[in-house]
Design brief:
With 418 residues, the protein is mainly beta. A six-stranded antiparallel β-sheet has the order 3-7-6-5-4-15, with no helix packed on it. Strands 16, 17, 18, 19 and 20 form a five-stranded antiparallel β-sheet that branches. Strands 8-9-10-11 form a four-stranded antiparallel β-sheet, with no helix packed on it. A hairpin with a 7-residue loop joins strand 6 and strand 7 (90-96). It has a domain at 1-48 and 97-245. It is globular, with a radius of gyration of 21 Å. Mean pLDDT is 84; it is low at 1-21 and 184-199. It is built from three helices and 36 strands.
């Protein structure tokens, strides 16, 4: 049974840390400002649409399925790219889905979040995508706070007629005295705002930042507190099962065998899915507050922690955790990073999207002494997927693809999404 949540938040409790504001003598500075995106309830109910390619506003997560790449346009929908020739990818369409952040695909059925609803699309004919199902109010806590913003501008909206579907972040010059009052002052009261807002088969592959994961006949979708579970054995008619409470600030999900690895701002949680409809807690690895995706290979979990702003006060870095005893994960080694986001593994290569510090590639043969193979410095990086044939990465509204070499990687194409 889905539960309504009441949110009472204070900007002071979010512990925002300002970005580099370039203070000057006129009393103004630059701030990252988050503004709400709203849509009328009438439009939201009939909002899914397939249109021609359009410029991207803010690139989010990336997902691959067969010869196609799907790039999330944060809170707005999905860009569809034909990647049958990785050297010349072609944008072919845009799926408009308000409030969308994540997708997952199995046997030509695409599952996407639209705020609190789960959308099912038939993509067997990529030129004639059809919506086949909409499960209403099966997801919650699905509008994540823009933790990295310095200021959240929240205006009163009529929740009888409008829905909050996400946030747009922009850099603005503000009078320092007034901005600091907004940063440190009053509470924000959301009276049911977010609650009312909202391997059998061929599956696709997402990056480490994914919150959706298909395992056999089940779709697992994490929100900030729960694992939402859907039986998708009937692909076009998923069944909403009982949620499993998993903790606080859950951000990502990764699967290996009979275990789910959940990345949160507080730690890594491990769940057993031997009974797939009832995940059970196994263990956790705790760390200081930080944004935290995770991938697993062999006896180790690789966790990138991003501190600063709303992600927490912890310094950023790569944490390598020994999970050979799955019930007692232990930290083995840490490496400093600047602002890491997604990461991935292909054989002995470890790929880390280190934000404005670029894409970093390591040989992880010796985890006690990672060897740098490549560092692409002059790009902004966000999410990465290591495929069998090549590497896919998205960042700063650009899609990059690299081919694997014996001891390095080489860029084979890039396409601007805007």
């Amino acid at each position: 049974m889905k539960k309504k949540i009441l949110f009472i938040l204070s900007l002071a409790t979010l512990a925002f840390v300002s970005c580099d504001k370039n203070d000057d003598n006129d009393g103004y500075a630059e701030y990252l400002v988050a503004k709400p995106l709203v849509i009328s309830k009438a439009d939201f109910a009939n909002s899914v649409d397939i249109i021609a390619p359009r410029p991207i506003d803010e690139s989010g997560k990336v997902y691959t399925y067969k010869d196609y790449i799907f790039v999330n346009d944060k809170y707005k929908g999905i860009h569809v790219i034909n990647n049958s020739n990785p050297e010349q990818p072609v944008k072919i369409g845009f799926i408009r889905i308000p409030g969308n952040v994540d997708i997952s695909v199995k046997d030509d059925f695409l599952y996407a979040d639209s705020l609190m609803d789960l959308i099912v699309l038939d993509i067997s004919n990529i030129t004639d995508i059809k919506q086949v199902k909409r499960l209403e109010n099966v997801l919650h806590n699905n509008v994540f706070w823009p933790f990295e913003a310095d200021i959240i501008e929240y205006e009163n909206h009529d929740y009888e007629t409008e829905i909050l579907v996400g946030w747009e972040t922009v850099t603005e010059r503000r009078l320092v005295e007034e901005a600091e009052k907004l940063r440190n002052g009053g509470g924000i009261f959301f009276e049911d705002a977010l609650a009312n807002a909202a391997d059998g088969g061929t599956t696709g592959q997402g990056g480490s930042l994914a919150r959706f994961k298909i395992v056999d006949d089940y779709l697992y979708a994490v929100d900030s507190h729960n694992i939402n579970i859907f039986n998708i054995s009937d692909l076009d008619n998923p069944q909403d099962l009982e949620d499993v409470y998993a903790g606080f600030d859950i951000e990502t999900i990764f699967n290996r065998g009979n275990h789910l690895f959940l990345g949160s701002m507080r730690g890594m949680y491990i769940y057993d899915i031997s009974s797939p409809d009832k995940p059970t807690f196994v263990s956790e690895f705790q760390h200081g507050t930080a944004c935290d995706p995770v991938v697993v290979d062999g006896d180790y979990a690789y966790v990138t922690l991003r501190g600063g702003n709303g992600c927490g006060a912890l310094e950023s870095g790569l944490f390598i955790v020994d999970i050979s005893d799955i019930e007692n994960p232990e930290l083995t080694k840490t490496y400093p990073m600047d602002e890491p986001y997604g990461l991935g593994i292909k054989d002995e290569k470890l790929f880390i999207c280190d934000g404005k510090s670029g894409l970093k590639v390591y040989d992880k043969t010796d985890i006690e002494n990672l060897k740098s193979l490549n560092h692409f410095k002059d790009i902004i990086t966000f999410d990465v997927i290591p495929l069998e044939s090549h590497l896919i990465m998205v960042g700063d509204e650009i899609l990059y693809q690299y081919e694997y070499l014996d001891d390095k990687i080489k860029l084979i194409s890039q396409i601007g999404l805007n």
